[in-house]
Amino acid sequence: MFASRACALLLLFFIAVVQGGCSGRKQTFGKAVLSDGEIERIRVEWIDSDTFQEEYRTVGSEGERREIRGTAVSQRMRFVDAHYALLEDELRRTRSTLDFTSDITIISLNAVGALIGPASTKAILHAISGGLVGARASAEKNFFFDQSTQVIIPKMQALRAAKRAQIEMQLDLNTTTYPLAKALGDVDQYFRAGSVTMALIALTNDAGAAVKQSEAEVDEIIQSRYDRVYAASETQIDLRSALTNRVLLMSDAQAWSLVSMLELASTLGGDPKRNLLGGVNDLLQGKEGAALEAELERIGRAFDVAGVPSE
Amino acid sequence: MTPFDTIIDGTYTLAETSSAIRFKEAGGFQLTSLSAGMNRITAQAADSPMNYASFIFLEPPGTQPKKLELAEVKDSDAGKIIGDRITAGWKLISMNPVFVKGKEKMVAAFRKV
Fold first, then answer.
1. Residue A35's CB: how many other CB atoms inside 10 A?
2. Which residues does residue B104 pair with via DSSP β-bridges, in sequence order?
């Protein structure tokens, strides 16, 4: 059953974080302030109970269904917000009492850390991973742990904000397009968006995107810096070889004439034949197959026009 | 003479790599070394391996180098392959790890003397 599963999920995390320390006192969650009684009321009426879902199925009008859907979503989101505020508060304030293990060992941190990403993210993820295994006493680990909250909390906030905006936007839709079950499923995702696990996964994805971007940049640099040489057929090799042999037979004047005729701009130096061969090399760059052969033949015709003897 | 660095697709067969180099040499350039691209991160190299080939421009312009051959060598037969070629009038000009069909192999480049 959805309600009991969701409740179990929420309470498991809630209990893990609070670790029994909240009994009988009013919780202060930054902006959200919920009493134990209010939390309990929401749990009983909107998480454990199926009553509102039965009512949703039986009411006759679209307006009533929207109202039930809206209230259920809003109440569950209050519960999630309360949980999240406590988690964030604990992350900021009393890291030493917070047991990360149950949350973040779901994913393999060592695998995450092995990804090549921005150095700071990688170092932080590694540090968290190490922190799970060993003591958190060392200054280095504490340092990285401090950094980790600075990375993870904003990511959790961003994920939650994005999911909340999506839910609120969809609440404008009719209940056929956005039924109660879908809305409650989205609240589940909203809850998960505020977890350390999801933040780490998102950070990993960010790191992956950064890696892809940097790889693309490296590719671009390599492409711009180096010529690319393609496999060629024997015919193409022979055609080029014959052109090069003709360079040995031509005069400097003919070489200059060809540099001009073929509109070459070589970087090989002041010698006309060097310029010609460098320019021809540039013309052939990036060409393969039929296009390459056509270009070789075009250059050969230019050699003929310039009166360059053949072998 | 400053060498020109070029890149050759690391997924090519040895014959395709050889033809790419020979095409370049047919333009009046001469191979001086061939090696697997190592300045990229390992994971990326596995996805799109590339080789680096260095050439010099031959003087006088229009001169073409003598025949080139590439051969894959293994630890077990490296001595024999190189020895046989040298005896047959070839000179070893480069022996480095090179990507062949995406896998790193030890490849020797010989030039006819």
1. 12
2. B99
Its ipTM equals 0.90
Lay out the sheet containing B103-112: strands in order across. B68-72, B103-112, B90-100
Check whether residue A145 and residue A29 sit in a common domain. Answer: yes
Q: CB distance from B74 to chain A under 8 Å?
A: no
* pTM of the full structure: 0.50
Q: How far is CA B89 from CA B2, B75, B81, in A?
A: 27, 22, 13
Residues A202 and A69 in one domain: yes
How many residue pairs bridge chain A and chain B with CB atoms within 8 Å of each other?
93
Is A228–B60 a contact, with Cβ atoms under 8 angstroms apart?
A: no
CB-based contact A240 B26, cutoff 8 Å: yes
Domain boundaries, chain B: 4-112
- The domain in which residue A179 lies consists of 2-208
Tell me whether residue A67 is in a domain.
yes
Per-residue pLDDT tens digits for A86-109: 777 777 765 433 344 333 333 333
Residue A235 has pLDDT above 90, yes or no: yes
Length of chain A: 311
Same domain, yes or no: A164 and A109: yes
Q: What is the dihedral of CA A170, A174, A175, A181, to 10 degrees?
A: -10
Over residues A193-197, the mean pLDDT reads: 77
Residues A131 and A30 in one domain: yes
Residues β-bridged to residue B91: B111
Question: Are residues A91 and A49 part of one domain?
Answer: yes
Residues 6+ apart with CB under 8 A from B47: none
* pLDDT tens-place string over residues A122-150: 444 444 444 333 333 333 344 445 556 66
Average pLDDT, chain A: 71
Distance between the two ends of chain A, CA-based, in angstroms? 87
User: Domain check: are A201 and A265 in the same one?
Assistant: no
CB–CB contact A230 B57 (8 Å): no
Q: List all residues 6 or more positions away from A104 whose beta carbon is below 8 Å from its beta carbon.
A: A128, A132, A196, A197, A200
- State whether A55 and A191 are in the same domain: yes
User: Prior bond to B3 cis, omega within 30?
Assistant: no
Report yes or no on A229 lying in a domain.
no
A231 to chain B: nearest residue by CA? B20
On whether both A179 and A265 belong to a single domain, the answer is no
